[in-house]
Each structure stands twice: as C-alpha cells, then as structure tokens.
Automatic annotation (TrEMBL):
Keywords assigned by UniProt, alphabetized: Membrane, Transmembrane, Transmembrane helix
Pfam family, one: Tmem26
Organism superkingdom: Eukaryota
Name the record gives this protein: Transmembrane protein 26
Membrane-spanning segments: 7-28, 34-52, 64-83, 136-155, 167-185, 197-220, 275-296
InterPro entries (alphabetical): Transmembrane_26
Amino acid sequence: MILLKFVCAIITRSFFILVSLIGVWRVKTVKNDNLYWLLTVLYLPLVVEMVVTLKRRKGQDYKWFSPAILLFLISIIPSIWILELHHQENKASDPQCRKLDSWDNVKGILPSNGTMGNETLKHLERMLTSVCPNDWILALHQVLLILLILGKWLLPLGGGVTRDELSQLLLIFVGTAADILEFTSETLSDVKDNSPQLVYIILAVWTWSMLQFPLHLAVVTSRPEKPEELAGDEGCCNSLLSRHSTDIWNIVESLFIQDGPFLLVRLIVMVYFDVFHQMLVFFAIKNFLVVVLNLYRLIVICQDFRPPASSSSTLPI
C-alpha cells in the first residue's frame, strides 16, 4: 500500500510537470524567444514539494489543502496568461493554421508509421506548431482542468479524508471545471480588438476561480457527531459556523470565487463593453440565479439555526 502511494504521488506530479513544460515550450515557440524557458523555474517548487511529501508524509496529501495542486497552478497559469495575451494582440495577423475541428486534421498531426526517431519528433513539432493558436490555448485549458480532477483522484488521501468525501469532492471539481471552461471560452470570444483591458479582467477572474481546486473545505469538514455523543461537550457545535461549515463554505465559494465574479464580469461585458448575445445573457442569468439561491440558502440556515441549550439549563431545580 505504501509503495502504491509513492507511485501515485510521483506519477501525478510527473504529469503536472510535463503539462507545465508543454505550456512553456508553446510560449517559447509562439514568442520565438529562448528566454521564456526561464518559466520552467516555476515548477521547481513542485519538485521540492514532491521530495518533501514523499520523505515526510510517505506521499500522503493534506486534509484541507493540496500543495501539489497549488504549485501546479502556479507553474502553468503564467504560460496560459502569456499565450492568451499574445493571441488577443495578434488575432488579425495569425497565419494559416490547422484547426482541430475534424478527425482528418487530428490525424494529420500524428506522425505517420514511416517516420522513426528524430524524424518523428521533427514531424510532430511541425504539426504541433501548425495548430491554430486558439485551439492550442483551449487544449491547454482543457488538459489543465482534466488533470486537476484526475490528479486529485490519484494523489494519496490526506489524513482524515474518507473515500466518500473524495468522491463528493471530485464530482464538485467536475462541475466547477465545466463552468470555468465555459466562462473563459465564451467571454474571451466576446473580446473586441480594442478591449485589451477586458482580457486582463477575464484572466484575473479565471485565475481567482482556479483557487477552488487546492482547497477542500467544500466537502472535507468536521463530521457531525451524534447528539448523544455531544451531550458531555458543552462547547461543541454551539456556533452556526461549526454546525453548517460545509454549507457556508459552499456558499462563500459560489458568491466570492465563482458565480459572483463570473456574473460581475458578464455584466461588465454587456454594459461597459456593449457586447450582447443570447448565450451571454443566458449564462449571466444562470450566475444571477445561483447567487440569489445561495443568498436564500444562507438566510434559511441562519433563521433555522437554534443553538443547543446549555447543560446547566436542563438541570432540575
């Protein structure tokens, strides 16, 4: 079992480093500047974290927080920022490229059976550089989100985390990843040539929303104990936060990390940047409904909360 934990911890972080390296290679290729290889320094902390975790915790992750996922985000997000900004600045001058919108185009990227060794690598590099910039960026977004989910699944469980909690967390990650990908792809496609500041706003909100993945507070919280077990503990679960910590954290995530910021950005796009279409309105309404329902949920929790009577008040007179 310990050997399996070691293998899973190493494989997961190796995939993190590989994807980060692909992102840096793409930045170097697009910018045509070898100085961008210095971005590889950003994944050195991930290597250090892997060594420390394997040595001190036998590969085991933490209960509330995943340093490996946070360091992976730190290593790849700068590359995606550079690629997004470069693409927005050079959309009009992009050369002819190969879109990944058909099986024939995808097969054209793969090396043929007749090529071997160095020829295979050269052919693959030529084909990858011929892919359209927008498809490259979208692929990085997709691989990043999928790897975050699979990586959390493969990482050894932290102390006190059950498999049931992990399964709930992974389901939350899938829904969160879909919303984030839809937000970036839809809103960035609405950017006009004269709105570079909107790109910064969207990327900043996207970066902020990605902080949900290293944190596990939405599911991994203190488990409620049975009422008879709490009878001898006066201070336990007397507060609203301790009793409904999971619900409150879910509401906070939605209001301040995901749906709230997404709604604000979409309103800015519609009102300030004068962009209007059906899908933008639909997703803005969807974010608005989620925000309102979460506020309603918070009000219900607060109104229904009744602190347990203290043990002294139940003693006979």
